[in-house]
Amino acid sequence: MDTPLNPIQLLAAPLGLVLAPLLSGVINRVKAAFAGRSGPPLTQTYRNLRKLLGKGATYSATTTWVFRAGPIAGLAAAVTALSLLPFGGQPALLAFPGDLLLFAYMLGLSRFTTMTAALDTGSSFEGMGASREAWFAVLAEPALLLGLAALTRQTGSLSLSAVLPLVTGPLWARAGLVLLLVSATLLVVLLAENSRIPVDDPCTHLELTMIHEVMVLDHGGPDLAFVEYAAALKLWLLSALLANVIVPVRTGNPWIDGLACLAGVFAIAGLVGLAESTLARLRLRQVPQLLATVVAFAALAMMLLWR
Fold first, then answer.
1. pTM higher than 0.70 for the full model?
2. For residue 134, what are the domain limits?
3. Mean pLDDT by 10 residues, the chain (307 residues)
4. 87 strand-pairing partners
5. Is residue 97 part of a domain?
6. What is the spatial distance between Cα 249 and Cα 259, in angstroms, rounded to a whole number?
7. What is the spatial distance between Cα 11 and Cα 8, in angstroms, rounded to a whole number?
8. DSSP alpha helices (H): ranges in the chain?
9. What's the domain count of the chain?
10. Which of 57, 71, 74, 112 could be 226's S-S partner, Cβ–Cβ 3.0 to 4.6 Å?
């Protein structure tokens, strides 16, 4: 007889869909506090999305169905990944052996659709952004997969819903160095995948340094809303994944565990805001060095587990 779903399993995905745009509001308020400003409202991203959804879309005559399908396909991939991610030590809505690979593939598919839509415009400027995105993904994706592989090696399972609930306080006491290396890897991957400082500056308008923003210059109206919402979901996904590792609250009460994980997600958003307020953006040639370092961290974690 199948085990009935608990409330956190049912609410985790809708919670992510609703609260994901709030993370950028937290980041912006932290940055504003460091700059001595009041900053935009926490709900500014929701207002931006609503405004974009009320506008019409304009398409260049040079674009094809690839450009039109990119935003929708990217958002669908992010929503699929959300249904695979456990929250607060509780299994995900969709769980099966090997789902961690599908989770990583969905993140990659979301990036791929954005890149192909940018290339479909025929703009050399957007092609430059897509090229940089692919360049950094070559190192970011192995770092993510090696980090997940270290977790699976430590817990002995190939499902995120079985791996993350086993990351507990006793496991941190026993394998703290391994989990610390994995956490550092996931944090840098989060910054890279979401085009955050020190990898990229989401507020930049300097053409020679833009990465993500340059790829979506031709999108407008609902299409741009889908792109921005998918980006918010990606930030939520990687923040929740990291929070499941660094907040090992496993009391057995799904509400307490879920609230602890939720607090961890918003704390990570605050940490991203802190990083953007205190760190400078790296030069483009230094970003691969940073990503190669966290690949080495994840590989070292695997080596420590094979001792």
1. yes
2. 7-305
3. 66 93 94 88 93 89 91 96 91 90 94 93 85 88 93 85 91 92 95 87 63 82 94 96 94 90 96 90 86 93 83
4. 90
5. yes
6. 10
7. 5
8. 7-34, 44-53, 65-84, 99-120, 124-155, 160-163, 169-174, 176-193, 212-215, 222-246, 254-278, 287-305
9. 1
10. 71
